[in-house]
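Sharing a chain and its predicted structure for anyone who wants a worked example. Both blocks are below, sequence first, tokens second.
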Amino acid sequence: MARTGIAPGATANHLTMTPMPQSLFSSQRWRIYLLGLAMGLLAGVCSYQAAGLTLGFFFAAIAMPSLLAPVLAAGQNQWFDRFFVVSGIADGTALTLLIAVFTPAISFWQWVQFYLLILAWVGLLGAAVSLLIHWRISRWIASILVTLGAMLCLTWPLWLARVLTQSMVNQLTAVHPLFSVNALVQQRLGLWSEQAGVAYALTNLNQDIPQRLPSTPWPAIAAQLILTAMLLLLIRLTGREGKNG
């Protein structure tokens, strides 16, 4: 009699309940990536239509993925799928920024730095969602918490205005995604504080406390990559992903 490889007492139901391992680059994962790519492209095109080739367009390249990445990441069942979808968002957003390469606004090398900054930022948001889901927090609550956290990180010049010191400003500015973006386009598009309108009136940066933009986006990119690695390590050290993941 031919051997079937089925353990004694095993049934067909036991076998069908065992999930098959998914290929690293399966067609399903590419569909997940294309979903993120499409959303990133849509957000980028809408931002360009609304703001034109201004500093606001480049700021939107960080702000819009901050809204999209947690929601789309939370909709995926595995942490690797989450990184596929947020990578798609980063790619789609960066593709729209290519428009600026054909103008004096930025060079191709500056565009590469933009892309890496966006990718590191959405990767951090995806890792944060994965950690909260790993801790058995509802995936949609996790997406809301991460979105709120991202907005707080981006807007600290407003809500920390009353307690900011020169030392705090120097340290936080160096790793802030939006200020890193401004540093890349400052020569052509000017300073955020010259264009912020109402927001400028709500903060004391460049008023009571002088601010110097980072000379390069690499500290922000490195900080986000380090935080992402720490979150993934925390997931690994605390066991397998929970059922909510």
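Comments welcome. The first helix runs from residue 12 to 16.
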